Amino acid sequence: MSSFTEESAVTVLGLGPMGRSLAAAFLAAGLPTTVWNRTPGRDRELVERGAVSAATAEEAVAASGLTVVCVVNYDAADAVLRRDEVTAALKGRTVVNLTADTPDRARSTAAWAAEHGVRYLDGAIMTPTTTIGTPDGVFIHSGPRELLDEHRTVLEALGGVHTHLGEDIGRAAAYDVALLDIFWTAMAGYAHALSVARAEGITARELAPFAQGIAAILPPI
């Protein structure tokens, strides 16, 4: 039997691949979960598993004390959260925004939240959808520490490690951008290396053992 109560109810706004994974993890943990997406139809499987499908974003955020947002960027998040009726429904409630964007956008949204009585925590997900609900997930958060502590039990239903990076609301986004810079630069470099090798008749399979050797010396450096 689940140890969660009605106070543990959570709403997920945004049902792309990551949003659906977040909602599925909450459901698997036994949390009362309400879902909403701008494009209808993405919640069918979640509803079959016990989620409540909200007709509007206002209805969705009013259903829970905690709303987790995961959409494509802050333009999309703001388009939902800053609608008058949604903003009014969020007053006194908590938003954890796991949407990826820049530190300045995080600070802008936090300022809006403070102005309208919305409790706000920013964050980012540093691992793919397959890690959600498993010990391999990595979540980073920034903003009021007490807000993360208050909702930690619910957020830990997502699995993995949840790290508070500081009170500066833009800090999680800064980590996210910096870490993704490492990832995409490395991927672009490897793709270019394969192209150089291919031009000389060297296959990716032939190059791979030596590429792994190069990668192995990077951590100590």
Give an overview of the whole structure:
This protein is an alpha/beta fold and 221 residues long. Helix content is 47%, strand content 15%. It contains 9 helices and 8 strands. Strands 3-2-1-4-5-6-7-8 form an 8-stranded mixed β-sheet, sandwiched between helices. Helix 1 (17-28) links the parallel strand 1 and strand 2 (33-36). It is elongated, with a radius of gyration of 20 Å. The termini are far apart.
- β-strand number: 8
Major beta-sheet overview: 8 strands, mixed
Q: How would you sum up the global shape?
A: elongated
Query: What is the name of the CATH class?
Result: Alpha Beta
Residue share in helices?
Answer: 40-55%
CATH superfamily descriptor:
NAD(P)-binding Rossmann-like Domain
Q: Average pLDDT, to the nearest integer?
A: 95
Residue stretches low in confidence (pLDDT < 50, at least 5 long) are: none
| Estimated share of beta-strand residues | 15-25%
